[in-house]
From TrEMBL, chain A:
It comes from Paenibacillus yonginensis. Residues 17-123 form the Aldehyde oxidase/xanthine dehydrogenase a/b hammerhead domain. SUPFAM superfamilies: CO dehydrogenase molybdoprotein N-domain-like, Molybdenum cofactor-binding domain. PANTHER family: XANTHINE DEHYDROGENASE (PTHR11908), XANTHINE DEHYDROGENASE SUBUNIT D-RELATED (PTHR11908:SF157). Gene3D superfamilies: Aldehyde oxidase/xanthine dehydrogenase, a/b hammerhead, Aldehyde oxidase/xanthine dehydrogenase, molybdopterin binding domain. GO terms for molecular function: iron ion binding; oxidoreductase activity. This is Aldehyde oxidase/xanthine dehydrogenase a/b hammerhead domain-containing protein.
UniProtKB/TrEMBL annotation, chain B:
Residues 8-84 form the 2Fe-2S ferredoxin-type domain. It comes from Paenibacillus yonginensis. Signal peptide: none annotated. This is Ferredoxin. The keyword Transcription does not apply. Gene3D superfamilies: 3.10.20.30, [2Fe-2S]-binding domain. One of its GO terms (molecular function) is metal ion binding. CDD domains: fer2. InterPro entries: 2Fe-2S-bd, 2Fe-2S-bd_dom_sf, 2Fe-2S_ferredoxin-like_sf, 2Fe-2S_ferredoxin-type, 2Fe2S_fd_BS, Beta-grasp_dom_sf, Diverse_Oxidoreductases. PROSITE patterns: 2FE2S_FER_1, 2FE2S_FER_2. Coiled coil: none annotated. Keywords: 2Fe-2S, Iron, Iron-sulfur, Metal-binding, Oxidoreductase. SUPFAM superfamilies: 2Fe-2S ferredoxin-like, CO dehydrogenase ISP C-domain like.
Length: 743, 162
C-alpha cells in the first residue's frame, strides 16, 4: 500500500527523485507561449496602442489589448481596482498593457518588440506618506487621496496610560520590501472551452478565492472558472492571486488553445508583489516597575499601485501584537497608501512579524532604561492561559511563559552579561493565529471528504493546499491516528476547484487547525460508519478497530470492507464529507473579537557576532521554543521553524528589494541576496508540548509564528552586540557600520 | 565542441546513455535536458546560475545547466537527478532527507540532491564542508540544516559499513 502515497504530487520521495511535476513541467498539445508587454513608466497616460505589426509576426496566434477584453473592476479584496489590461493609464513599471500568444517563445518575443505604445509620462509618487499629501498624483480616480483604507483601533484610556508612564521609548521604525524568494518563478497555464469555461493551472494556495476574483474579472459565473493547482515550488504569500493567471486565461479564450506563461526571474522580480513595506511611528510606555501602560502607533503602508492583500496586512499590523502583552491601553492608526511602485502583498508573518520587529525593539529599549533583564520585562507583561486579550482573543492555551523560561535555559541567556565585545544575545516573543475569521467573514471553516477505496486505501480530499509545508503528511497522520491504520495507506488530495471541497485558501496559518479539524472529524465519522458496516455484514458482535473488522478472533481487512460496501451500494464507494466550523467571533467594527480557534506562541533567542570593521552581522546561534500545542509531525514542524529562521536571517541582515522611482534596482538573484547554507546559524528548536482543546489532536499552527519573532530577536542581538539600535530593516553591513561610526 | 554548427545534431551522454538531439548549439543544457529529453527533474529557477535548481553533474562535478551551451558538453558524462535516483545508494540519501526535514516544496530539491550526491562521492572536491559545497544551491524552505544533517548521516553510515 506504500505505492498509494507515492502517487501524491506532495510525496517527498517523488520530490527527492525529481519526479514531481510543477507548472513548468506541464505541457499540453497545441500549447501556445504567452508574453506580456509591460509599462516602462511608473505612471503614464497611454495615448495610443498599435499592435498591427505585432499581429503580422509569423506564429502569433493572439494579440490582446484592453479594447478586446471586458472592463470590469475587480480584485481579491473589497477594493476593486484591478483590470485585465491597462487601458488609459499605467500605474507602475511592469503594468500589463498588451498580451501576446504565439507558437514559440521567439515569435512572442519578436511580436513584443513590434508593439507600439505612445505614452505621456505623468508625475509619480513613490513614498506612502508623500502619497497622502495634498497635490500628490492620484492613482485611482475613485479613491480620495490615495488612501484606500484607514484602520483606527483604540482600546483603554491612552491618556491615563501616558500619565502613568515612567519610561517611554519608541521612534520611527521601518520594515523593508522583502521578496518572497520562491524558487519556482511565477506562471500559469490556461485553457478555454464553451462547456467548461476557463481552466487555469496555477500554483495558487487560495484557488477558490482566486476563482471568485477571476470570474468577476471576466464577468463569468464562478462555475465557469476552474483552478487546478500543481505542486507549488514555494510561495510564502507571493502566489495567492496574480494578473498573469487572468492574462493567460484571456489569451486562451482568444486563441482557443492552451496558453502557458512562465515569467523569467527578471520579470518576476520587477513585477513582484513583495512584503508590504511599513513605516511605524511607535511609542510604548511603562511604569516604574516595568508594567506596560500604553502603546501608540501610526503606520504607513505602501500598497503599491493596486490592492492585492495589503489591507489585511495593515489590519494585522494594527492589532495582532496587542494580544501578546497587557499593554493597558493602545491606539493605532494605519494608513494604506497607493504609490506608483509595483503592488505589494502578504508574506509569511503577514504584518505581525513586521510589527513585532518594532515592538520587540522598543521593549528592549525600555528594559535597558529600567535596567531590567529583557526576558524579565517580557515575563512581567505577557498574556497567560485563560486570559482574554485586549482585542478579545480567548486563550484556552498559552505557554508563552514556559517558552521564555526554556529559551533562556537553552540559549544560556545568563551569558548575556559576560559576552565578548561585538557579540550579542537578543530575545523576542511572538503570537499568531491558526486561521483568521476576517479573512472571509462568510465562512472560515474547512471541509474534508474521506473515502474508502477498493484496495483498502483511504483517500482524503481537502480544500486546503499543500505548498511544501507538510500539510498532506499532517492530514495523513491525523487520519491514521483516528482510524488506526498506517499513514502509508492514506492519500491526501487537494488543489482542484472542480473536484475537491471548497476551501478559503491556505493562508493565515490555517491548514493544520482548520483543515486538520475537518480531516479529524471526517475520519471519526468514517470509523463509526465502518463499525456499522462491520455489524451490518458480520452481525451485531462485530467491531471495527485498528483498520480491520473483527469477529471472534477473525479479522477482515479494509479491502474486504470496501467490497462489502460496494456489494450493498450498487458499486459505490464509502465516502463521508464533514465540515469543521470553528467557534470564532468575527472582530467587530472596533476590531474586537475572537478570530481564531487557537493561538500559537514562541520565544526565540539569537546570538550574533558583528564585525566592527565591516558592520557585517553573522548570526552564530539560534534557539527557538514554541507552544504550538501537540506537534503532529515533528520533522515537518521543525522544518517550518528552521526555514523561518533562515528567512529571518535573510530579512534582517541582507534582503531588500530596492526600488527607486518605481524601478526595482536589484531584479536578480545575484543582486537580491538570499541566505545560503553558510548563512544559517546552528539552531535548536524545542516544542513545549501541550494539547489545545480546539486543535486537531491538540495542535496549533506553526508556519508563520515561526518567523514572527526572528526579526526582533536578531535586531535585539545586534543592538546588544553594538550598543546601537537599528531602526530600519535590513540591518545591513553598511547600516550597522554607519551606526558604529556615530558615537 | 562543434563550433559554428547551426541547428545540427549533437550527441549527449546523458545518464549513461548516448542520446542525439538537434537544435541550436547554444541552447542551454537545461533546456535540452528538459524539453528534448523530457527529464523535468532539472528545474529552472533563475537562468542566471544563482539558484542552483538546474544543477546536474558534468563528469561528476555539479554545474548549473542553465548557463552551459548544450553543444559544449558533447562527449562528456552528464548525470541528472533521474539518473542518480536509479542508484541504490541514492536511496539512503533520499531516506535521510525525509527523516531530517531536508525537503519541503521540493523545487530546489533535485539540484540540492545532485550537489549533495557529488559531495558524498568526494567531499575533498569542495575544499570543505557541505555548507560550502551548497553555496550555489538556494533553498527557501528548509533552512538547510536538515539537508546538511542528512548528508552527514549518509556519510557516517557509509563509514560504519552500512
Amino acid at each position: 500500500m506504500s505505492e498509494l502515497r507515492k502517487k501524491s504530487p506532495a510525496d517527498l520521495s517523488a520530490k527527492l527523485a525529481g519526479e514531481t511535476r510543477y507548472l513548468h513541467d506541464l505541457n499540453f498539445p497545441g500549447q501556445l507561449v504567452g508574453a506580456i508587454y509591460r509599462s516602462p513608466y511608473a505612471h503614464a497616460r497611454i495615448l495610443s496602442i498599435n499592435v498591427e505589426r505585432a499581429k503580422q509576426v509569423e506564429g502569433v496566434a493572439a494579440v490582446l489589448t484592453a479594447d478586446d477584453l471586458p472592463s470590469y473592476k475587480y480584485g481579491p479584496t473589497k477594493f476593486k481596482d484591478w483590470n485585465l489590461l491597462a487601458k488609459d493609464r499605467v500605474l507602475f513599471i511592469g503594468d500589463e498593457i498588451v498580451a501576446i500568444a504565439a507558437e514559440t517563445k521567439e515569435a512572442a518575443q519578436r511580436a513584443l518588440e513590434l508593439v507600439e505604445v505612445e505614452f505621456e509620462p505623468l508625475p509619480g509618487v513613490f513614498d506612502p506618506e508623500d502619497s497622502l499629501k495634498p497635490g500628490a498624483p492620484l492613482l485611482h480616480e475613485d479613491v480620495e487621496s490615495n488612501k484606500p483604507m484607514q484602520v483606527s483601533v483604540s482600546r483603554g484610556d491612552l491618556e491615563e496610560g501616558k500619565r502613568k508612564a515612567a519610561v517611554v521609548k519608541g521612534g520611527r521604525y521601518y520594515s523593508n520590501r522583502v521578496y518572497q524568494g520562491h524558487l519556482e518563478p511565477v506562471g500559469a497555464i490556461a485553457s478555454w472551452s464553451d462547456e467548461e469555461g476557463i481552466t487555469i493551472w496555477a500554483p495558487s494556495h487560495i484557488p477558490y478565492r482566486a476563482r471568485e476574483t477571476y470570474a468577476a474579472g471576466f464577468g463569468l459565473p464562478e462555475d465557469k472558472v476552474r483552478i487546478i493547482v500543481p505542486p507549488i515550488g514555494g510561495s510564502f504569500g507571493a502566489k495567492y492571486v496574480l494578473k498573469v493567471h487572468v492574462i493567460a486565461a484571456a489569451l486562451a479564450m482568444a486563441a482557443r488553445r492552451h496558453v502557458k506563461i512562465i515569467l523569467d526571474r527578471y520579470e518576476d522580480m520587477i513585477t513582484a508583489h513583495p512584503r508590504v513595506p511599513l513605516t511605524f511611528d511607535i511609542e510604548i510606555g511603562a511604569d516604574e516597575e516595568g508594567r506596560f501602560v500604553y502603546k501608540e502607533l501610526t503606520v504607513y503602508a505602501d500598497a503599491g499601485a493596486r490592492v492585492y492583500w495589503s489591507p489585511n496586512v495593515v489590519s494585522t499590523v494594527c492589532t495582532r501584537a496587542d494580544n501578546i502583552y497587557h499593554f493597558g491601553s493602545v491606539k493605532s492608526e494605519g494608513y494604506l497608501c497607493y504609490t506608483n511602485n509595483s503592488p505589494t502583498t502578504c508574506m509569511r508573518g503577514f504584518g505581525n512579524a513586521e510589527m513585532l520587529f518594532a515592538v520587540e525593539s522598543v521593549i528592549d529599549e525600555i528594559a535597558l532604561e529600567l535596567n531590567m533583564d529583557p526576558a524579565e520585562l517580557r515575563l512581567k507583561n505577557i498574556v497567560h492561559q485563560g486570559d482574554t486579550t485586549l482585542h478579545g482573543y480567548r486563550l484556552d492555551t498559552c505557554k508563552l511563559d514556559e517558552c521564555i523560561e526554556k529559551v533562556k535555559e537553552l540559549s544560556g541567556w545568563h551569558r548575556r552579561a559576560s559576552l565578548p565585545p561585538y557579540r550579542g544575545l537578543g530575545l523576542a516573543v511572538a503570537n499568531h493565529v491558526s486561521g483568521f475569521r476576517a479573512i472571509d467573514p462568510r465562512f472560515d471553516g474547512s471541509t474534508a471528504v474521506i473515502r474508502l477505496k477498493q484496495d483498502g486505501g483511504i483517500e482524503v480530499e481537502t480544500g486546503e493546499i499543500e505548498l511544501g509545508q507538510g500539510m498532506s503528511l499532517t492530514y495523513a497522520r491525523i487520519a491514521s491516528k483516528i482510524l488506526g491504520i498506517p499513514e502509508e495507506a492514506i492519500l491526501v488530495k487537494s488543489g482542484d476547484t472542480g473536484r475537491y471541497p471548497f476551501g478559503i485558501g491556505t493562508l493565515a496559518s490555517r491548514s493544520t487547525v482548520m483543515g486538520g479539524n475537518a480531516v479529524q472529524k471526517a475520519a471519526q465519522s468514517l470509523a463509526a460508519r465502518l463499525k456499522e458496516l462491520a455489524r451490518e455484514t458480520l452481525g451485531e458482535a462485530a467491531d471495527f478497530r485498528e483498520g480491520a473488522a473483527v469477529l471472534e478472533g477473525q479479522t477482515y481487512s479494509l479491502s474486504e470492507l470496501a467490497s462489502w460496501y460496494r456489494a450493498r451500494h450498487a458499486g459505490e464507494e464509502l465516502e463521508i464529507k464533514e465540515t469543521y466550523v470553528p467557534d470564532t467571533d468575527l472582530p467587530d467594527a472596533t476590531y474586537f473579537g475572537h478570530p481564531s480557534p487557537n493561538y500559537p506562541f514562541a520565544a526565540h533567542v539569537a546570538e550574533v557576532e558583528v564585525d566592527p570593521d565591516t558592520g557585517r552581522t553573522k548570526v552564530i546561534g539560534y534557539w527557538a521554543v514554541h507552544d504550538s500545542g501537540t506537534i503532529i509531525h515533528e520533522t515537518m514542524a521543525k522544518g517550518q521553524v528552521l526555514g523561518a529562521i533562515a528567512q529571518g536571517v535573510g530579512w534582517v541582515t541582507m534582503e531588500d528589494l530596492l526600488v527607486k522611482d518605481g524601478k526595482v534596482m536589484n531584479p536578480s538573484m545575484m543582486d537580491y541576496r538570499m541566505p545560503g547554507a553558510n548563512d544559517m546559524p546552528k539552531a535548536e528548536v524545542f516544542f513545549i508540548q501541550g494539547k489545545d482543546p480546539n486543535g486537531p489532536l491538540g495542535a496549533k499552527s506553526i508556519g508563520e509564528v515561526a518567523l514572527d519573532p526572528v526579526p526582533g530577536a536578531i535586531a535585539n542581538a545586534i543592538a546588544h552586540a553594538t550598543g546601537k539600535r537599528g531602526y530600519a530593516l535590513p540591518l545591513s553591513a553598511e547600516k550597522v557600520w554607519k551606526s558604529l561610526q556615530n558615537t | 565542441m562543434s563550433a559554428g554548427q547551426q541547428d545540427g545534431n549533437f550527441k549527449l551522454n546523458l545518464n549513461g546513455q548516448e542520446v542525439v538531439w538537434s537544435g541550436e548549439p547554444a541552447a542551454s543544457l537545461a533546456d535540452v535536458i528538459r524539453e528534448q529529453q523530457g527529464l523535468t527533474g532539472t528545474k529552472i529557477g533563475c537562468r542566471t546560475g544563482e539558484c542552483g535548481a538546474c544543477t546536474v553533474l558534468l563528469e561528476g562535478r555539479p554545474v548549473v545547466s542553465c548557463l552551459i551551451p548544450a553543444a559544449s558538453v558533447q562527449g562528456q558524462q552528464v548525470e541528472t537527478i533521474e539518473g542518480l535516483a536509479r542508484l541504490e545508494e541514492f536511496q539512503s540519501l533520499m531516506a535521510a532527507m525525509q527523516e531530517n526535514g531536508g525537503v519541503q516544496c521540493g523545487f530546489c530539491t533535485p539540484g540540492v540532491m545532485v550537489t549533495t550526491w557529488a559531495w558524498l562521492q568526494n567531499p575533498a572536491l569542495f575544499n570543505g564542508d557541505l555548507g560550502s559545497a551548497l553555496k550555489n544551491n538556494l533553498c527557501r524552505c528548509t533552512g538547510y540544516l536538515g539537508i546538511i544533517r542528512s548528508a552527514e548521516q549518509v556519510l557516517a553510515g557509509r563509514g560504519a559499513g552500512v
